[in-house]
Amino acid sequence: METIRFILLIALGLVLTMIWQAWQEDYGQSPMTEVVMGSQQAQSPGKEQQADIPDTNISVNEASPISRLQAENNLPTKGDIVRVKTDVLDVQINTMGATIQELALTNYPVKKNKTDESVLLLKNNSEEFYLFQSGLLSKQTSANHKTLYQTEQSFYELSGDSLDVAFVWRSDSGIDVIKTFRFNRGSYLVELKHDVVNQSGETWSGSAYAQLNRTDPADSGSPFLYTYTGAVISTPETRYEKISFDDIKKESLSIEVSNGWVAMLQHYFFSALLPGNTEDVYRYYTLNPGDKSYVIGSVTPSISLAVGENASFQQKMFFGPKLQKQLDEIADGLELTVDYGMLWFIAKPLYWVLDKIHAYTGNWGWSIILLTLLIKIAFYRLSAAGYRSMANMRRVQPRLVAIKERYENDRARLNQAMMDIYKEEKINPLGGCFPILIQIPVFIALYWVLLETVELRQSPFMFWINDLSTKDPYFVLPLLMGISMFVQQKLNPAPMDPIQAKVMSILPIMFTVFFAFFPSGLVLYWVVNNVLSIAQQWMITRSIEKTKPA
How far is C-alpha 65 from the chain's CA centre? Predict the structure, then answer.
């Protein structure tokens, strides 16, 4: 029993370590660095960001790999900046291509004590860019994200329920294009419409594209806080499939689906390209125009316009936080961008219960405590069985030690004598293992819930804990966790092997150091769970020792 328990405790430590390794190996990317809103001066997308237009020779009905075109030397190198402000977004649109080159989430400060500095989801600088680009694809005259547009104002601000910002381009051949962004109050969903008017002397045919173009962010986060940063594609057959930056570099993607979407993910926030009509067949693609540039995009079905006709291409984009209750209403499977990993079937119910509790408490810390209590109640009978087994093992520990000394040189007789005691006392030597085994998947699932839930970002608990999504600044909770783990060890039967006993005594210290870098919300759960376990185990041990003395 001592050996098994020892192995299980070490396995628990290894499982926790593997959580971090799984982030690095399976997801393989560092978290997006949150930066402060930059200068309002005009800055055009750089040369490398522009060499990424999907090939017009590939129609929607073809599945060939997408090629890329290099930027032409005679293209404009600079556009004017149009600023758009809503109640949740602060956007900079460059008139060259009507490209969204900066987008700030005004309700999400970079730091809790600096509310005037918003998280930049999209940005444009030479070292690290992240842009939304769009345009038309046509063998005739078309307007892409290298085309210089015109607009009536340099500043727009939402005053009603919605705001339309229009950009106009007129070709010499008689093709007029009006690109209109629609922003809605309280929404991170942006609608995009390309109106095309054919006043040329021939039939015009083409399609519209939209794409997210970004660099692989620099590794500047904590080694203990790796989450997936990269592209994702969703189809009715596979609702959530990751496409890493390495995947984009190795091979270009071209796939045709209806009711699908693509996105670029990072910790807490993401951008997504959604179809204007879920019944239409869109082509989704990836590009790698340069060493620093990674593109994922979508192309609408093509249309043909006779002379004098006009038509519109409809597309949608999402730029914002991973708010689960809103995402499932926007598109099928979009809530999967809140990545709970392989234990999502446990994590989703945990989040649902946690959110319901928070609706009453208004405090995520107390919600975590109450959720822990509910989990403990749910596993009460199973945990009690395990604690009874450990209490019985503790009660017969002196007899086991005596037998070990008597048959120290006869392993066979020692094992037989121990089994006789277990049979006589009706003890299951494996009974104490089940509480640990049951808690491991719940712990990992709750870990993902607390790490991926953007509502917990910068959410305070009480006293010194002012952000449940980051580590305890004074390491009080990790120390309490270590103490509670030490107390639990004292309630368990001590290993008869002195080497195992020494290793076991080190585990509380090792876990204290390990948990010092965990989000404080998760450590809070573990401390409360340990305290409840200690109370339950102490009562059961005391009851058994009174009724069945050794």
Answer: 29
